[in-house]
Amino acid sequence: MQSEIESTAEALRALSNPKRLTIVHWLADPTSHFPPQRDGDLVADGVCVGFITKKVKLSQPAVTEHMQVLAAANLVTSKKIRNWVFYKLDKNAFAAVLNDLSKGILESEKELKAGKSAGSSSI
Question: Count of CB atoms within 10 A of residue 60's CB?
Answer without folding.
Answer: 12
